């Protein structure tokens, strides 16, 4: 299924996935900032969010003073991220770009963020390796990757068919978002159908979008990172970070030994 089309179509209403998007922006920014500064020291740091979407992580990190650049496969999403940044008086340069081929020079960033289950849109080992090789290339020596995915080890054991509905209450009424999952015969990939029920007067309008994911367990994801030349791979649980998903940290080896273990 078309990942770019999925997010282009969702861009104007992606915030409705959250009960309170602004609160989520701030909370996720704080969680990623804590991991970033624990590894690299006090900022501000130059950060690439290479699957920035409408800015959920980028805006939170920029508000904390980091110099953030946002890229995403979806032009509609990065356009909205830029608008959201302008409304908040934040600096957030953006570009439409594929994480497998980034338009930046080597060693351009202190950190790369790839959050909110973006990497699993890549459905082959070749594509995952390409994306992580690009991540390593644009990181400075000693730089940090922050990557989050769903907890796929657990999900592969249970293979859920749906996710519980989320309800957002706004000035125009309640929006209900829920998901159906359709697992492929290989047992690893699945099609996700996202349904949003939007209030329209006394009735509801239904919007449906679909995308495909590869449910990579944590150790396999960390293995791909190590294949790409990243080191110090470590998963951090949501209970420890306050982030909505498990977060993998990994480092590009540095000239003085940092990130070499």
Please explain how this structure is put together.
The chain is an alpha/beta fold. The chain folds into two domains: 3-153 and 216-251, Rossmann fold, CATH 3.40.50; 154-214, N-terminal domain of TfIIb. The chain has eight helices and eleven strands. The protein has helices at residues 3-10, 21-40, 56-63, 75-87, 125-138, 152-158, 218-227, 238-241, and strands at 46-49, 67-72, 94-96, 109-114, 139-148, 162-170, 173-183, 189-200, 203-214, 231-236, 247-251. α2 (21-40) crosses α3. The longest helix has 20 residues, at 21-40.
Give a quick precis of the structure.
With 261 residues, this protein is α/β, with parallel strands linked by helices.
Reconstruct the topology from this structure.
Layout (H helix, E strand, L loop, with lengths): L2 H8 L10 H20 L5 E4 L6 H8 L3 E6 L2 H13 L6 E3 L12 E6 L10 H14 E10 L3 H7 L3 E9 L2 E11 L5 E12 L2 E12 L3 H10 L3 E6 L1 H4 L5 E5 L10
Helix pairs in contact: 2-3
